[in-house]
Request: fold
Amino acid sequence: MKSVLLVIDVQYGLFDETPRPFEADAVVERINILTARARAAGVPVVFIQHEAGDIEYNSAHWQLQPGLQVKEGDVKVRKTTPDSFLRTELEALLASWHTEHVVICGYASEFCVDTTTRRAAALGYPVTLVSDAHTTHDKAHATGLQIRTHENATLPNIESFGPEIKAVATSELHFTN
Reply:
């Protein structure tokens, strides 16, 4: 199955400002493991960058988190909503690569990761949500860990789109394009 790895919104202004997201450094390390595995298997790696408010295009806050290992050949996609497909070239890129499956990780679990996961499934793509490689900030109603746990439990239970959504830990995920 031809896969693509989507790394969503792991940007300086979202990740490195205090307070930082839950397990920020560990999530970056896991994403680096995933991107290395993807590249080794010939799987395209797409870094998606949000821009809105104080995260203006090309500003310091818009830049990818410095700990990410970005390589030549990786693709970058700009977006302005929690949906990585809305008003972006992502859907056309996936079609041009004959993508059959997407793997999703990044920030923020309950917003951009959730919305992009749902949209990918609605477009017909089976989705693997990397259960320990997405994160968010603590909120008044729940911690970052609780929000991640909720997303990992909720998204795989959505069957109405048709394609399967599953949550899999980094250690269990291997690419085989």
